[in-house]
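Help! Submission page says 'invalid entity' but I think these are all valid:
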Amino acid sequence: MALDKNGIAKRIAKELRDGYYVNLGIGIPTLVANYIPEGIEVMLQSENGLLGMGPFPYVGEEDPDFINAGKQTITTLPGSALFDSATSFAMIRGEHVQLTVLGAMEVNDEGDIANWKIPGKMVKGMGGAMDLVASAKNIIVAMQHTNRAGESKLLKKCTLPLTGVKCVKKIVSNLAVLDVTPDGFKLIERAPGVSVEEIKNATEGRLIIEGDIPEMVID
Amino acid sequence: MKKVVSGAEEAVKDIQDDMTLMLGGFGLSGIPENCISALVKKGVKGLTCISNNAGVDDFGLGLLLKQHQIKKMISSYVGENEEFERQLLSGELEVDLIPQGTLAERLRAGGAGIPAFYTPAGFGTEVMEGKEIREFDGKMYLLEQWLKADFAIVKAWKGDTFGNLVFRGTSRNFNPMMAMAGKTTIAEVEELVEPGEIDPNEIHTPGIFVQRIFQGSNYEKRIEQRTVRQRG
């Protein structure tokens, strides 16, 4: 069975390492915070000016001066730090953030990503995504493998305006975990019950399948 | 040193049609609510507004958009505003969308006397079009220029009559860089105190960057996404 959003988030959480500073994008990436493995400490960076983002506030304790990059009310933690937007993006461009997790509308087999604009339709802006993908050492994309029409979103070439080029390192989709290599998408793991054939059919870009592909272990 | 003005109306009195303004805030957090209301009341038009976001339909910069007072927006993300999207798609509104970190740095550069800088953000995308590209240590960068404005309008938590400012939480965001980059900077604060009442160690924006300051009133501080957890 293909993973749901929480399943994708759980699998990505396994990539976290003790001591990482991590930026989580809006949507599925935000859910990763709910599944940080026990025994490791990570610091969540919110690009609007907070390191050490805590959970949502208790009912009645929402404070308009404490929000995350998705404009949700949040809390700080012991050891949190607050700063301005220029300092925040110095952390990002300066490669001080170890891992960025973000969503995508399309990726291609060279690691290009498109996630900010549908010409003539959606003009929301790129926010911090272009800065994040231009500089992060490690970028994991959380996404659905196909669109609603069943067409692949893992392409040979992105059709939408790009957010960044040759930057995505790993993809965790509802069907699979794939690494982006110079030769294309390399299949690493299958979602529980999903066959290699299904993944092949759902992937338009170059796909490398070597040996037996294990099922993901989540939970 | 006379920086204190009576209120928002006096603070914005010489803002005229077709000027360029910077307005602090991220989403609705840290926006200069009082000055935005005063600008709506004043009815100035043809404004170019530099602000990370464009408010929501009935609050923040959305209020100026609704009155068609804004000619051009320079922002990084404008997702929560239907009127904005309508004006943009119909061609009524000009929009320059730029990466958030580039926006922050262009503001900082404007205030710091740095006319341009190289950044990797946007390389290989449409943001790169028309810009000088250069390689440093094997990586490609594009040249981005400083931003300046006739007025910067910022919102702080506390300020003193010399214009020293302290921000609270994540409402700091773009406010400190904008304060640096405005030809004239207006600061509205929730609490205006006498010099000496703020510990100099704790000042985020030194008063040299602020020309006008007043204690605002009736802050709504609207929350865009109210997310909570239940006590377990």
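Support: the input was valid. A stray whitespace character was the problem, and the output above is from the cleaned input. The two ends of chain A are 15 Å apart (CA to CA).
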